[in-house]
Amino acid sequence: xxxxxxxxxxxxxxxxxxxxxxxxxxxxxxxxxxxxxxxxxxxxxxxxxxxxxxxxxxxxxxxxxxxxxxxxxxxxxxxxxxxxxxxxxxxxxxxxxxxxxxxxxxxxxxxxxxxxxxxxxxxxxxxxxxxxxxxxxxxxxxxxxxxxxxxxxxxxxxxxxxxxxxxxxxxxxxxxxxxxxxxxxxxxxxxxxxxxxxxxxxxxxxxxxxxxxxxxxxxxxxxxxxxxxxxxxxxxxxxxxxxxxxxxxxxxxxxxxxxxxxxxxxxxxxxxxxxxxxxxxxxxxxxxxxxxxxxxxxxxxxxxxxxxxxxxxxxxxxxxxxxxxxxxxxxxxxxxxxxxxxxxxxxxxxxxxxxxxxxxxxxxxxxxxxxxxxxxxxxxxxxx
Length: 384
Known about the structure:
This protein is α/β, with parallel strands linked by helices. It is built from twelve helices and 14 strands. The strands form three sheets. Strands 8-5-9-10-4-11-12-13-14 form a nine-stranded mixed sheet, sandwiched between helices. The chain has a three-stranded antiparallel sheet with strand order 1-2-3, with no helix packed on it. Helix 11 links the parallel strand 9 (253-257) and strand 10. It is globular.
């Protein structure tokens, strides 16, 4: 039809005939993309969305977690339509940082946020987000932290070099808000002018439920039901589920849920070993995963896995998540005083990464990973 329309418009002119012959000689192995001027008759197949990029492995659309080193460990980023589960550290010191990085990256990229919590008000969480480094100041800040730990010992120089091992090799540093993945200064808060431009939706459980929460064993708790209804409503309103095909501009919905499965949500996963066959937490994740799969959404959930007594529930929670990352803090453990770990604050475990369109999940090849919270930066290092 495109060739016929072109010939009709050219009325037999040599230029139109040559163009038609050139198009007819294109094989099926040539990818059709938008022209430089953006005027393509059929339009581009893939919609370009700010803050995303296709995976080099399978073409899946990716978003950044807000921590470039973690993006590399996960195969380039977090796939749209998947759920990332963060196993909280024992004292919940470092997992909130990953949660905030994920949300801050959404604001910088222009994505819509959905923040759900039973402990902190979403507005308060957003006020505590770290400030992005949008220029060459990243290298200066990184080098300053490195200079504070310099020693003449050659082994220490090697450890400092490990800091750069997991950083993207093709990018020297964040230069604009349009790039994929940014770095953040934990010593500063996100600028208010940037926060005012953000589009976000908050779910604070105490404001959604007036009577005291009651534990409902083996059933979906009232808090989980309210949250699922809220997520489904926002997904539809934002049009990320395809309910508004006439909407030309597409965007990503970032869903962040804090401390899911804790008693604050009315869940008994952390204080009972009953309900071996069914549990509200696993039912919630099953429905949530379906909502995320069918929309342009990416979800990060933090769970106090160390408090869940029933290991069968822990295993099912893992299987219902696409990506699982565990944080193990050295605070209060014997490793805190072990000289081998003196330069680190904890270990990070990549327990599961998704193998999309397959029945089983991949496992990360990198096992010896440690994290450290410096004065301004949260870094992931190897070489233990």
